[in-house]
Amino acid sequence: MTRVDLSPYLRIDASGDPSLSVPDAKVTTILDVIAKETEMRFRGEAILTLGLVRFMGTDAQKAMALAKLEELSVSTDQNVATLAKWSKSNKPEKKLVLQLLEPLPK
Q1: Domain tally for the chain?
Q2: CB 22 within 8 A of CB 60
Q3: Is there a domain that residue 102 lies in?
Q4: What pTM was computed for the model?
Q5: Most buried of the four, 3, 7, 48, 50, by CB within 10 Å?
Q6: pLDDT, tens only, 22-75
Q7: Which of 69, 70, 49, 39 is CA-nearest to residue 3?
Q8: Is residue 13 situated within a structural domain?
Q9: CA distance to 4, 12, 25, 71, 80, per residue, from 22 (Å)
Q10: Looking at residue 1, what is its pLDDT?
Q11: Residue 96 domain-assigned?
């Protein structure tokens, strides 16, 4: 889903580590998708993407992401709650983040 894609905002810093510089408006879009999307596959993708923001965003974005993930962690929808708990607690592995920067195979 392109609405929550963060790959345009990912970079590799001088030490070879991935970094994220995402506009606040994009984080707001991710939160809107989580709040308004009815299809679980899109909502789930947004929740997982918010997990990336939770660990790699600015301090304010991290706080916003964590607050939303904590809220979602107690959802009565078990799929939402499970994804939110996982996204809140699992820092993305460097290898997996770097894969987001690789071109898709044709």
Answers
A1: 1
A2: no
A3: no
A4: 0.89
A5: 50
A6: 999 999 999 999 999 999 999 999 999 999 999 999 999 999 999 999 999 999
A7: 49
A8: yes
A9: 11, 14, 8, 22, 24
A10: 57
A11: no
